[in-house]
Design brief:
Helix content is about 70%, strand content about 5%. By secondary structure, the protein is mostly helical.
Length: about 250
C-alpha cells in the first residue's frame, strides 16, 4: 500500500473544478484541469521519493495510486513520465515502475558534475552578494548545528544552502540543471546515512563557512576551490555511508 496521506491529493487536485468553465471551450479547461492534477501528483510523489518514504526499489502501481487519490490514471501517468525523465523512477514496459536505485557510481558521477556547476556558481556570485543574501547562507549553515535535527531535515538544509548559491548566480540554466541533478544525492543522503552523520556536521558546517567567507570577500578563485574540495569530501562521506549500509 502507498502512504495514506496520498489521499490529500484528491481535494487539492479538484479544488479548481468548483469554478464553472464556459461551455464554449470545455476542452481547453479540461486540459488545464488534467495538467493541474498531474502537477500535484508529481509534487507529492517527488517529495516522497526524496524523503525516502518511497524507498529506492519500491514498485509504484498506477492503478493503486489513482484509486487512492480518487482521480483518473492519466494525470498519474503524466506525473510518472516526468519523474522518469528526471531519472527518479524507472519505467519497465513489462515489469512495472520502480523508484530508482542509487549506486556509488551514480553518486560519484553526480558529484563530479556538481563540482563543475557549483564551482562556477561560486565564481559568478563572488563579491556580488548583499548582506541579506550572505545572511541567508549563514543562517542555513547555522541551523545545521541544531541537536534535534533529523537526517531528512539535515539533508534539506544542506540542499537549500547549495541551491541558494546556485540561485544567486542568476543563471537559470545552471539552476535548472543543478536542481534535477541534485535529487539523487538527497535520496542517497537519507537512504544511506552513515551511523555517525551527526559527528560529520562539524566538518560540513566548517567547509560551508569557508565558502561563504570567500564569496563575501570577493575571493572567487578561493571560493571555487573550496567548494570543489567540499563537494569531493561530501562525495567520500556519502559513498562511505553506502558501503557501510551494504555490509
Amino acid at each position: 500500500m502507498l502512504p495514506e496521506n496520498f489521499s490529500e491529493l484528491a481535494e487539492a487536485s479538484t479544488a479548481s473544478s468548483e469554478t464553472q468553465t464556459p461551455s464554449s471551450s470545455p476542452a481547453a479547461f479540461e486540459s488545464l484541469e488534467l495538467r493541474r492534477a498531474a502537477e500535484v501528483v508529481y509534487d507529492i510523489l517527488r517529495e516522497k521519493i526524496l524523503s525516502c518514504e518511497l524507498r529506492p526499489g519500491r514498485r509504484l502501481d498506477v492503478g493503486e495510486i489513482s484509486r487512492q487519490l480518487g482521480i483518473s490514471r492519466t494525470p498519474v501517468k503524466d506525473a510518472l513520465q516526468r519523474l522518469s525523465a528526471q531519472d527518479l523512477i524507472k519505467i519497465h514496459s513489462r515489469k512495472g515502475t520502480f523508484v530508482t536505485e542509487v549506486t556509488p557510481v551514480d553518486v560519484k558521477e553526480t558529484f563530479q558534475v556538481r563540482a563543475a556547476l557549483e564551482g562556477k556558481a561560486c565564481e559568478l556570485v563572488s563579491g556580488r552578494l548583499n548582506e541579506s543574501q550572505l545572511g541567508n547562507l549563514r543562517d542555513l549553515n547555522g541551523k545545521m548545528w541544531a541537536p534535534e535535527l533529523s537526517i531528512v531535515e539535515h539533508a534539506e538544509l544542506n540542499n537549500e544552502f547549495h541551491r541558494l548559491i546556485v540561485q544567486f548566480s542568476e543563471n537559470r540554466r545552471l539552476l535548472s540543471t543543478y536542481e534535477e541533478l541534485n535529487a539523487h544525492l538527497q535520496i542517497a543522503r537519507v537512504r544511506y546515512r552513515s551511523s555517525n552523520w551527526r559527528d560529520q556536521r562539524t566538518n560540513i558546517v566548517r567547509e560551508h563557512q569557508a565558502v561563504v567567507d570567500a564569496i563575501a570577500e570577493d575571493r572567487g578563485s578561493d571560493a571555487k576551490r573550496l567548494m570543489e574540495l567540499h563537494i569531493e569530501a561530501s562525495m567520500t562521506r556519502l559513498i562511505e555511508g553506502i558501503s557501510e549500509s551494504s555490509v
